[in-house]
């Protein structure tokens, strides 16, 4: 028996599938497909907020430097504004890595619900529902690999 995918909720082997608390033999799955739900605008807004959080200190630093150059002030005031602008722009560097990691995780999870459906003799069955796009892709590919030999027989 070959195991194609295993996690605490899903098991896909060469002999069967366990998803959503139910067991199915591979020959019992007549057809398998997936659907994608509507986009979650709150996830997209969260990504935008993270992007703005990274850009705002850079914009403020650039604005401080522009103001320092455009204003006709003493040299010490100009230098203070330029150095302050540079420091403000550099302040984002340590935080940017953390925020970009959050953005990466947001894209891994996806912005919509994904479902795997199967057709059995009794009708259509929801096999899996998740908002984790990365996990969904692994499970769906494993299910396709498991079903390939069953189709060739």
Layout of strands and helices, then pairs:
Layout: E1 3-6, E2 11-13, E3 16-19, E4 22-25, E5 31-39, H1 41-70, H2 75-90, H3 92-109, E6 112-120, E7 123-130, H4 133-152
Antiparallel strand pairs: 1-2, 2-3, 3-4, 5-6, 6-7
Helix pairs in contact: 1-2, 1-3
Count of helical segments? 4
Q: Output the CATH topology of the largest domain.
A: PH-domain like
Into how many domains do the coordinates divide? 2
Rounded radius of gyration (Å): 26 Å
How can the largest sheet be summarized?
4 strands, antiparallel
Low-confidence stretches: none
> What average pLDDT do the residues reach?
85
- First-to-last CA distance: 16 Å
Can you count the beta strands? 7
CATH architecture of the largest domain: Roll
User: Proportion of β residues?
Assistant: 25-35%
Element-by-element helix/strand order = EEEEEHHHEEH
According to CATH, what is the class of the largest domain?
Answer: Mainly Beta
Would you tell me the structural class of the helices and strands? Answer: alpha+beta
Describe the global form.
rod-shaped
Helix content: 40-55%
Record the strand order, biggest sheet: 1-2-3-4
Pfam families: DUF6232
Transmembrane segments: 49-71, 77-100
Keywords: Membrane, Transmembrane, Transmembrane helix
């Amino acid at each position: 028996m070959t195991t194609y995918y295993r996690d605490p909720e899903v098991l896909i082997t060469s002999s069967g599938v366990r998803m959503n608390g139910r067991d199915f033999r591979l020959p019992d799955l007549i057809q398998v497909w997936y659907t994608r739900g509507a986009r979650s605008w709150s996830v997209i807004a969260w990504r935008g907020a993270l992007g703005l959080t990274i850009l705002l200190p850079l914009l403020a630093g650039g604005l401080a430097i522009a103001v320092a150059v455009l204003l006709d002030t003493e040299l010490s005031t100009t230098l203070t504004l330029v150095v302050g602008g540079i420091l403000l722009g550099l302040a984002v560097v340590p935080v940017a890595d953390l925020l970009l990691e959050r953005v990466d995780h947001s894209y891994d999870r996806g912005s919509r619900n994904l479902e795997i459906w199967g057709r059995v003799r009794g009708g259509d069955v929801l096999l899996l529902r998740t908002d984790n796009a990365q996990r969904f892709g692994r499970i769906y590919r494993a299910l396709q690999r498991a079903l390939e030999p069953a189709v060739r027989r």
